[in-house]
Amino acid sequence: MAEPRGPAPTGWTFLTNHARVLAAISQDPGTRVRDIALRCQLTERAVQRIIAELEADGYLTHTRAGRSNRYRVASGTVLRHPADSGLTVADLLALLALHDTPPP
Description:
The protein has 104 residues and is an alpha+beta fold.
């Protein structure tokens, strides 16, 4: 289970909560809402709302696996903002993965 990393910053941040949730799901498609909430420092209700919005807009789907969900990120989906024209979810996730890769 992810540990909170300290108090949430005030003001602006580089990533949206939607990007954080999507990245968490892409790293573990079987993750629980509770674990996403802890990792992203959000409430479970906020994570549920974000997942519903991502699904409604075609960025994410889920299937039931017993009592839990298994998520699938639609990596070829184009990002929404006009300034990101042509960039896909896969491009965004690749950029975020670079952040998690230790330097040589």
